[in-house]
């Protein structure tokens, strides 16, 4: 399993937008994309003592507990694209996602991008396409008013590395206002590998 932190998208307006956008880009993406809509905050790595241990997750939780992150607003922006995938871009007016990342990243060995773009992935491109062709297609997406969401919790999730389009599994949700109380609720999938050490940044 590969672990990561995310905001889970489950509001009706957001889900409708995700479904509409996914259908719109369907000619360009592989079929069978089964990942529920979510906004990745930071990647953690393979769940193992070697790559991302329960100790490192506990250290991340301890860092978040001291971060005092309040509930914050996110809103949808426009259709955009990485080289490998189209996505819905997300606006984070308060910069809360980057603040959360700064507390999580010292305890992850993954190479998280320095320039972070919050987004909801719509699928993976099935082939190489001309950039202008894709851009022109995106311009035809029907205008929708921005969807806003008050984020009150974040989630630790995993996916199977051998199924690149497979579903994600939420191991635990943590409310922003009660991370201290949630500290001991780590899923047994991770907890069983726990070795207690001082919290030092991942190397």
Describe this structure in words.
With 203 residues, this protein is an alpha+beta fold. Helices cover 25% and strands 27% of the residues. It is built from six helices and eight strands, in the order βαβαββαβαβββαα. The strands form two sheets. A four-stranded antiparallel sheet has the order 2-1-7-8, with helices on one face. A four-stranded antiparallel sheet has the order 5-4-3-6.
The protein's oligomeric status is single chain
- End-to-end Cα distance, whole Å, is 20 Å
Structural class, judged by helices and strands? alpha+beta
The topology string of helices and strands comes to EHEHEEHEHEEEHH
According to DSSP, the number of beta strands is 8
Task: Point out poorly predicted stretches.
Answer: 186-190, 192-198
Count of helical stretches = 6
Choose one word for the global shape.
Answer: globular
Mean pLDDT: 86
Strand order, main sheet: write it out.
2-1-7-8
Rg of Cα set: 18 Å
Helical amount: 25-40%
Major β-sheet annotation: 4 strands, antiparallel
**Beta-strand level of the residues, as a percent range?**
25-35%
List the helices and strands and how they pair.
Elements: E1 2-8, H1 12-24, E2 38-46, H2 54-65, E3 72-81, E4 86-91, H3 96-104, E5 119-121, H4 131-139, E6 148-151, E7 153-159, E8 168-175, H5 179-182, H6 188-191
Antiparallel strand pairs: 1-2, 1-7, 3-4, 3-6, 4-5, 7-8
């Amino acid at each position: 399993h590969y672990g990561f932190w995310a905001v889970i998208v489950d509001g009706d307006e957001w889900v409708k937008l995700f479904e509409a956008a996914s259908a719109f880009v369907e000619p360009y993406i592989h079929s069978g994309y089964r990942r529920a809509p979510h906004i990745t905050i930071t990647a953690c790595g393979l769940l193992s003592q070697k790559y991302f241990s329960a100790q490192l997750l506990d250290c991340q939780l301890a860092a978040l507990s001291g971060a005092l992150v309040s509930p914050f607003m996110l809103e949808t922006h426009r259709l955009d694209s990485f080289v490998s995938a189209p996505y819905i871009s997300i606006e984070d007016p308060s910069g809360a996602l980057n603040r959360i990342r700064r507390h999580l990243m010292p305890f992850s060995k993954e190479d998280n991008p320095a320039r972070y773009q919050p987004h909801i992935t719509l699928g993976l491109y099935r082939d190489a396409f001309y950039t202008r062709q894709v851009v022109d297609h995106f311009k035809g997406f029907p205008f929708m008013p921005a969807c806003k969401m008050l984020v009150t919790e974040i989630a630790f999730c995993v996916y199977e590395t051998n199924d690149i389009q497979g579903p994600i599994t939420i191991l635990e949700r943590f409310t922003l206002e009660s991370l201290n109380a949630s500290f001991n609720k780590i899923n047994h999938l991770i907890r069983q590998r726990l070795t207690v050490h001082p919290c030092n940044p991942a190397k």
